[in-house]
Amino acid sequence: MRNPADKKEKLTMQLAFQPKQDDLYQLYQFGTATKIGAGGSRGGSKSASADLIMFLRRLTYAGTSGLFVMKVYQDMLDIHIRPLIVKYPVLDDMFNRQDMIISLPNGSFIRFLSGDRLEEFQKRKGREFADIVVDQSELFTQDELEFLYTINRSTNPKITAKTLLCFNPGGVSHSYHKRIFIEKRYENREIPEEFAFVQMFGWDNAYWSLKNLLAEGLTIEQYHTWPAQKRFDYFIKTDYGQILDRLPENKRKAELLGDFDIFEGMFFSDFRWGHHVLENYKRKAAFNTVGGLDYGRTTVLEILQRDYEGTIVCCGEVYLPDMESPSERANAIADYLIANELYRLTIIYDTDMDISQISNVGFDKRPVDIFREIFRQRMGDNAPYMEVVNKISLDRNRGFRAVCNEAVKEYLHIKKVTVEGREIEKSGVYFSKNCTALIDCITTLIFDPKDKTGADFDRSANHKTDHPYDAFKMGFMKIYTPLLKKESLLPKWAQEEFDIEEDEDDERVYERRFKNVW
Q: pTM score, two decimals?
């Protein structure tokens, strides 16, 4: 019979980190953050790093528990369990296949759990795990991840309970991972100090280059002394590196470069945070301004402006989730309009606001009537003008949604133009940084696999989160016009530049002229 002490020694001796893996371990073990992200491109050794960290923590802290979570059982078997047993054969005797638990000689254990519904994890809500590793965490919803945080705890005073999320760009929780780890934007009661992130790339993992290194008489140690650019250039000449480097550009950026602005299946793949999001945009009183209102359990108002060149900026947002009363929603929007001096604003609303509520909730008025009354009471002559959306498509072969989506894609597309002898990148639409719900929405919509035309996103996957986009597109289509190919198509006076912001008396006249031209 083997000596348990020998087992522990053999396991400990074989735990070795590459430099980026060590960065992750040092942050995880000695940092103060309790929710750590390891994300980036494919092949960055995120899963192998998670294995090493989990085992080292179990060996270091006797009698503690760890939980590995993946969406699919077969993935757990192929990516973690089998490679671990091959690398450490001594674990085979410690693995209970029925319960999916590895029990170590020092009283620590690691449980492996897979499942595709939150209920699978809620069955274990009474348990505690000092460490939780969620591999391919982009496949889990934010709700599922936040539930796992609640069982990440330990009564052992020697260890601080921590969660490790390993992820690539994309997936149902792409916007959540991007927000907390890349953009470092925190909501509700989230504590910034609890989150930390290590970005991992394929060229951080020397084993992809091992065959080439050996052929040239080089070592892994030498490889890790090279600067990042040299390792990248070497990596993309390997078999795996060439596969990633030859992907279509959108996939290449996500899977090779770990670009979180884009991922496979992204519907609005031209969106780039660094280009389309404006940090300090201030609304211009003289520009043509409209609102788009999506009404429902979650009600959203998006404010859009268009300048005299036709560039559109979404510059304001009211996001109202889970409000029961139409009057509550109307008053909240009125508060925003008054605070931001948005007077006599045209608001385009969806047709469902014209439906009587008496059969559903007992209201004898349509929602739009309630909104109009409250706006008049609160704002008098400055109340907004409510206009129902016109969904009659100019293209008889396609529906309103397809036409809207194509128009937004057209305006999102980044082109290089020459201005005063300088080449710059320009698109037709931008977003103020404070429009957070819309930005999160528009960057996570995915193609509908059932739509052969590619003209729509998957509404079944995004039906709870597409409200900001629905509000935006109604306002967008009100002031949108197809991008003109030649400046000569504009009336001569519309090409002239003149200062309109100082002449407040002519503001309404200018807006009428503006609307007529466009």
A: 0.68
